[in-house]
Amino acid sequence: MMTILKQNTPFGGRQYFLDWLRVLAFAYLVFFHTGMMFVEWPFHIESGHDSEFLKSIMISTTTWRLDLLFLVSGVAISFMMTKMTIKGFLWQRVIKLFIPFVFACAVILPAQPYFEALQKGLIEPGLWVFWTTKYFHFTWLEGMLTPWPTYNHMWYVLYLFLYTILLVPLIAFINSNTGVSFLSSLENWITKGARVLWAPYVIYLSVFFYTGHNDITHAVWDDWFGHFVYAYILALGLIFVRMPRVWKVYEDVRYISLAMALVTYGILMIKYNWNTPLDVIQWDLMEMLMKWSWVATLIGFARHYLNYTNDFLRYTNSIVYPFFILHQTVIIIIGYYIIDWGMNGFFEFIAIAIGTILISLTLIELVIKKYNILRLLFGLKLIKKEPELVFNSSPSF
Prior knowledge:
This protein is mostly helical. The chain has one domain (about 5-110, about 150-375). Helix content is about 65%, strand content about 0%. The chain is built from 17 helices and two strands. The protein has a two-stranded antiparallel ribbon. The radius of gyration is 23 Å and the shape is globular.
């Protein structure tokens, strides 16, 4: 059943198209991380295939897929901060982000370096032995992508937790009367013409030209450009949701942003595939230009076509967090075995991706959702027990 968006909140109504973007972006991670096995880029498990076609698709998304997640996370944080005190919000972040992060690093992620090291012939078989005797020894073997213990794909949760703390002053400001007045003026300015497209580039490109690169490492202690990009777009989500007219402008200029996205992607593909005069154009610069144009395009088209909710969206939105925590570990485990079956690379890719979705959903529905302790560790709401009925007496608590 489809439900059309109703304008019933101070932020112009629940922006369901952002929920769709969140779900679709997390779902795409399954196909992206599966694809990492089938291209030449380093990954924990290698299939032996190197698909130029798949690589071309992944180039189009690798610059913006995580920016989109941080933008949507900023929107969610902004909503939450209208219902909580700063102290309550920070505690909620510890419960929802930090605890699942620590649990995942300790219990869910060890299989990733184990199967990587196993495929590379660096350890003997035995996951239990690896986890209990090696994983927590702070080791980085030559040839491994990461040390262990590791946070691998959970870097996103760690970064989000850290930015939450660092952006508390901004959150407090936009909740104040002065902040509300400032955002009202900013909304009036940025929603004129196509400013929503080029204004975010001012800071993006300023930092890019200052640093001279756009290298992102996902190493929390040495990822300054990554921290800038992700914290910046998280902050954009925080403030854009307080300026609801912004979303409508993105919808209005969606074809302009699409043209920008396709042009920059086309230049990258020409540079990637052929030696041409376009080689004088800097690759990193094109990536930066493509980054925001694709985010703007997705916002605009989603606002136009996906601004509704239904049962599928409600369900997938409710399980997207545990799905994210599980997905890469499941990919690596089943990928380790499937790539030895000797199938065609296309069928291996499909088997790993579909298998990851089915196994992750099964674990969520049949295991994680059943127990409150697991719900807590995977970031889900706890099940409140119904009070027992006592006949011939008033309810007891």
